[in-house]
Design a protein that fits this description.
- The chain has 378 residues and is mostly beta strands.
- It has no helices and 29 strands.
- The strands form 2 sheets. The chain has a 19-stranded mixed β-sheet that branches. A 10-stranded parallel β-sheet has the order 4-7-10-12-14-16-18-20-23-26, with no helix packed on it.
- It starts with 6 loop residues before the first strand and ends in a 19-residue tail after the last strand.
């Protein structure tokens, strides 16, 4: 474990608490993998324990592997082929250089308004942690930020001041990576700003009480997200894709401003699958882009479901368009989209989309659960 002197820790770190429920350390831990081969340094490195790569002194999985978040000891470490924690993990993980647990307050780098995770370094945030960031400060990720929350104990980022500009947000620099499960981001100016060359892999996230929601200039995946706008206080389009191809799925986007668009695309080939988008001006506004996909989504209660503008060859397949007026409009150069198997309440297109046609439209709205469902799924 490397130094954690750059972080002000309001309670114990994972590696410092022998009895903490989420540590993978020695015999006092509820989630231990045995006295040998843990992610602490009590009996070996982070990849092999004292018993070698095939077995540890206390057995294959440890007493409470279900609380772990995914194999910090590596694929061949003590704990068996799936890594420490077993069932809750998703494969081998890099060992962390910094590990944050409990109540944590961030101190920015000397002379700067950001805390940097350097290239080649890994910072892990454990389940149940609450990370508080001062106003005006961001976290810049040049290496890897790993957020290991669980459904029962999500990891949270929040501003020291609880408002929509309480802190700046996560900045994923080129080469940086965000790997997050069950995370929450509150009070940020831009909760996630993914620069060109960055990567994000996010499953289960809540973002709210923030000036913006997402800016993507890189690819990545986000699944099972709940993205809540500020309602009438939303001052600009909260989700922007700039020449990138992220994949968003099983995501709710709500609490919009009827004068602002929700998702604006300025180039790239993003995919939006199993979405639910409501209460804004344009659910989707495609200024540019090629081959953008909207599928299996519930698009309802907006001024426009989709404003096509200058995008081309889009795929709009198997969606509900209800209570939008119009559903699809302002086609501009976008005259070559595939629009099929959708349910439209009212006309499919505005008069300014004369070249688009709807094929095999559904006679009734698709269900929200079960066979043929649209919108976010578990």
């Amino acid at each position: 474990m490397k130094s954690t002197s750059a972080w002000v820790i309001a309670s114990c770190l994972l590696v410092a608490c022998g009895g903490d429920d989420t540590t993978t350390g020695g015999g006092a831990s509820n989630a231990t993998t045995g006295s040998a081969g843990s992610t602490s340094t009590s009996a070996g490195s982070t990849s092999t324990g004292a018993g070698g790569s095939s077995a540890g002194a206390a057995g294959d999985m440890g007493a409470a592997g279900a609380l772990a978040t995914g194999g910090a000891a590596g694929a061949t470490g003590v704990g068996g082929a799936v890594g420490v924690g077993g069932a809750a993990g998703s494969g081998p993980q890099l060992p962390a250089d910094e590990t944050l647990c409990g109540m944590v307050t961030i101190t920015p780098d000397a002379g700067k308004m950001t805390k940097t995770i350097a290239a080649g370094k890994v910072t892990a945030v454990c389940a149940g942690a609450v990370v508080t960031i001062p106003m005006g400060v961001s976290i810049t990720v040049q290496g890897t930020l790993r957020v290991d929350g669980t459904s029962a104990m999500p990891a949270k980022f929040q501003g020291a001041a609880h408002g929509s500009q309480g802190w700046e947000g996560l900045v994923l620099a080129s080469g940086g990576k965000l790997a997050m499960t069950y995370g929450e981001i509150h009070d940020a100016v831009m909760p996630i700003d993914s620069k060109a060359g960055a990567d994000f892999q996010v499953d289960h996230i809540v973002i709210d009480n923030s000036k913006n929601l997402l800016h993507f200039a890189s690819g990545g995946t986000m699944n099972h997200a709940a993205l809540h706008g500020l309602g009438a206080m939303q001052g600009k389009d909260p989700i922007v894709v700039d020449n990138a191809s992220p994949h968003l799925s099983n995501t709710l986007v709500d609490k919009g401003n009827t004068g602002m668009d929700f998702i604006t695309v300025n180039g790239g080939t993003p995919v939006f699958d199993y979405m639910d988008i409501t209460s804004c001006h344009c659910a989707f506004h495609f200024n540019a882009g090629t081959g953008i996909t909207i599928s299996n989504s519930n698009i309802h209660g907006n001024a426009y479901g989709l404003m096509v503008e200058g995008s081309t060859t889009n795929s709009i397949v198997h969606n509900n368009f209800t209570a939008n007026n119009p559903n699809i409009g302002d086609c501009g150069g976008g005259s070559s989209a595939t629009v099929k198997d959708n349910y439209f309440q009212g006309p499919a297109f505005a008069a300014n989309c004369p070249k688009l046609t709807s094929t095999t439209p559904a006679g009734a709205a698709y269900p929200l659960t079960g066979t043929g469902a649209v919108g976010p799924q578990p």
